[in-house]
Structure formats: C-alpha cells, structure tokens
Design a protein that fits this description.
Length: 242
C-alpha cells in the first residue's frame, strides 16, 4: 500500500510539473495567445513521462482556460477570456480596448416606453411614468460579447435618446450628465430567451451570465440595466480591500 501511495504521488508531481512549465511559458510571454503548445508526444520525449500523464496535464490546462485543444490539430494557448470587475462600473468599450481588441455596437432599440410597475418601483417613479429604453449589442472584434438592456430616468438624462450609441456608450453619457454616486449589482446565471440567444450567437444548451445593475445619482436611481453575457465566454472578478 505504501509503494502504491508513493507511485501515485510521483505521477501527480510529474503532471503538475508539466502544467507549471507550460503556465510559466505563457506567463512570461514565451508562449503567446494562439501559439502551439508542445504536443503529448513532445512532452513525453522531453520529460520522460507516460503519455497518460501528458494528456492529463494538457486536459487540466484546457479546463482551467490556459489552452485550447483541437482534435486532430493540436493544442494552442487560449486567448485571454473577457472579464469584468463586478465591484466596479466600467465602460465596456474601455474594457475591450484594454484587451487589445476593437469595440463596436449595434443599437437594437432606443425609445421612450411606459414601464411595468416592477421597474417603476426599482426606479422609484410614479405609476404611469415613462422611461427611456435602450437595447445595445456590444461586440469585441466583431463577436457579440454583451447585450445591454437598459432603462434610464428621463428627468436625470433628458438627451439620452439623442445619443449615437455606436460612437459612445450609455456609460460614458450617463457618467457625464448624471455622475455615479452609488451602484447595486446582482449577478445570476440563467437560460437566455430565444431572441437573446440569437443576438449573442449562443448554442442551445448554454446559459448566460447576467449582471443586473442599478445606479444612483444625488440619491435618485438614474439607470437600471441587465448586462447579459455568454456564460462560457465571460468571467467576473472582484476585489475587496478592508
């Protein structure tokens, strides 16, 4: 039994060594996004390990998002996954450009609507009041990354419907006319509607990640937004400092 335990520990140490080696190459920039990663055969030859050990190392690296494996083609360094800090209200265009990609947007809806009561309650407005509504699809390098479904208080952002949101973003406009004083975030995973799935080009069996964000200025709610992302192509981070 002791010999079996030692053998198991040795195998685990070897595949972790392979993983650490590849992660180090990625972190130092020796391997860049889309670069080919050494194959199982190459790892076996270089490190003197079993093929099963090499396979396990590459499989776990793929599960952790470091590499992408294409059957019959090879293993490649994965591109950085888009992510957002859930504790911050940032401009999505800036996030995308910071990743070295181009931001573009399609304005699907931009109009004044009579809102449902649950939404008026969240916006602390009287029954029968109207809100400005925008539905914008944000793209990163031409691929859809976020569907922004936003309602805005007309009295706090009176020129909202006059903005060209293919050239700027609601975040930029609202920051200018109604500076943020506080924000509330609710994050959940859900199955998207057929229309949302179509906009985000999501397969039928995948869920989406929704950030429900409400922002205030001068003690009044100015905006309520659902920021919807493909769940398997986006991640959230958060840092709290005490």
């Amino acid at each position: 039994m002791k010999n079996a335990t030692v053998a198991t520990d040795s195998i685990q140490a070897r595949y972790r060594q392979i993983k650490d080696h590849i992660v180090r190459l990625i972190n130092t920039g020796e391997l860049k996004p889309k670069d080919r990663v050494p194959s199982e055969h190459a790892l076996v030859k270089t490190f003197g390990i079993a093929r099963m050990t090499a396979n396990r190392a590459l499989k776990e690296l793929a599960e952790e998002g470091y590499v992408t494996r294409l059957a019959g083609v090879g293993t490649f360094v994965a591109e950085a996954r888009p992510h957002s800090d859930v504790l911050k209200v940032r401009n999505i265009a800036d996030e995308i450009r910071a990743r070295g990609h181009e931001h573009s947007a399609l304005v699907l809806t931009l109009q004044e609507v009579e809102a449902e009561q649950w939404l008026l309650d969240r916006m602390q407005m009287r029954p029968g009041s109207s809100l400005f509504h925008s539905l914008i699809l944000h793209l990163e390098g031409g691929s859809p990354i976020q569907l922004e479904d936003r309602y805005v208080c007309p009295t706090l952002a009176p020129e909202y419907l006059d903005q060209d949101f293919t050239k700027t973003t609601p975040n930029v406009y609202l920051t200018r006319v109604a500076p943020l004083h506080s924000a509330e975030h609710i994050v959940r995973a859900t199955m998207p509607s057929p229309q949302t799935r179509k906009y985000l080009k999501m397969p039928a069996n995948k869920s989406c990640l929704v950030i429900r964000r409400r922002t205030w200025t001068q003690g009044r709610p100015v905006s309520h937004a659902d920021l919807i992302h493909p769940g398997d192509a986006y991640e959230l981070t958060g840092t709290m400092v005490k």
